[in-house]
Amino acid sequence: MTKTHDEVPFSYLVKVGHISANPVEVRLEADARELKALAETWNVLSVESLRADLQISRWKRDGVRVKGRVKANIVQACVVTLEPVPSALDETFEQIFVPENSKLARRAANDAGEMVLDPDGPDLPESFVGDTIDAGEVVTEFAALAIDPYPRKQGIEFDSHIEDTGENDKKPSAFAVLKDWKKD
Fold first, then answer.
1. Is 79 left (phi over 0), alpha (psi -120 to 50) or beta?
2. Which of 11, 48, 62, 90 has the highest CB neighbour number within 10 Å of its CB?
3. Helix and strand totals (H; E) in the chain
4. Block mean pLDDT (10 aa), the chain, length 184
């Protein structure tokens, strides 16, 4: 969490000291100004709505768990026709935060000193500095991951392209340049 409060388009600061072991239910919804800022950040035509339902609770001794579901309605440009394409995002997520110098943020190595990562396993905890976590930024990041990078309007195919056969990809000979050099 290195961005300042002003650089984040959607923000909801949570004081770590006020979090208990019992999950606190929080509902976040972006206002018109935040929706416009999110559209610019995500490089989409517009963000019509963004809503998140969160459960924020203590994790182990010093950590914080943010679990939730984010829903958004966005409008993107079709990659073929550039016409507006509405789409709905619906993403569940879970993120754990620990203080920046916590041992819980480090992944243990095996006997050979190698770090073993499971791609299907849980993510490493994020670290935070100070006494606040921005749950709005977490929501924004997970919603952004759900955006289709190549939106296409229903029924549109990109079939007017010409497939390259590779015939013209032959490298010219180094001596072909010298061929016309001594014609005096």
1. alpha
2. 11
3. 2, 7
4. 63 88 92 95 95 92 91 94 93 90 60 64 76 92 93 76 68 71 63
Q: From CA 91, how far away is CA 143, in angstroms rounded?
A: 7
Q: Which two tokens stand for residue 54?
A: 């969160």
Residues 8 and 81: their CA atoms lie apart, in Å, by: 31
Per the CB < 8 A criterion, the answer to whether 70 and 50 are in contact is: yes
Put simply, whether the predicted model's pTM sits higher than 0.90 gets the answer no
In degrees, rounded to 5, the angle at the alpha carbon of residue 120 between the alpha carbons of residues 118 and 122 is: 80
Q: Which residues, 6+ apart, have CB-to-CB distance to 115 below 8 Å?
A: 107, 109
Contact present, 70 and 143 (Cβ < 8 Å): yes
Chain length of the chain: 184
